[in-house]
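Researcher: Please translate sequence to structure tokens.
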Amino acid sequence: MKRNKWIIFLLTLTFLFIYLVFKYSYLVGFCEQSDYKCRLEMNQWLFVFSFAPFLFIASIISLLLPNRYFESWLRFAWWGGLVVIGNFVYIHVFATSQPGDMFAGMFDNLIILSAYTFFVLGSLIQLGRTYRARKN
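Model: Translation complete:
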């Protein structure tokens, strides 16, 4: 199980690196800072990988967990992660508003924040349930 922890950690470290490359693409040399079209495309990719910092924090915490708690959390994280990724896909692909729409993108951050809140609270509840089950 220790190997799974490190695999998850390295994957999230890779996602964090990709996130930072898209965030600072003008420093890496992908785009000029004044190139609007390139920056717009990089911002779209940045939006796709915006879960990376939060996932990185969760993976650091999971490295410190004992194996029984990690296994319990991992079972939840598979489903919780799918919900978060599903919200990103919904916002990025299906919820694009028509040009001139007054509410274009107004609720995107609220949906993303609710997905992250669901994931964090669900993780804490799952860890608490595992702790209580082991305690009894």
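Researcher: Any highlights?
Model: DSSP finds six helices and no strands in the chain.
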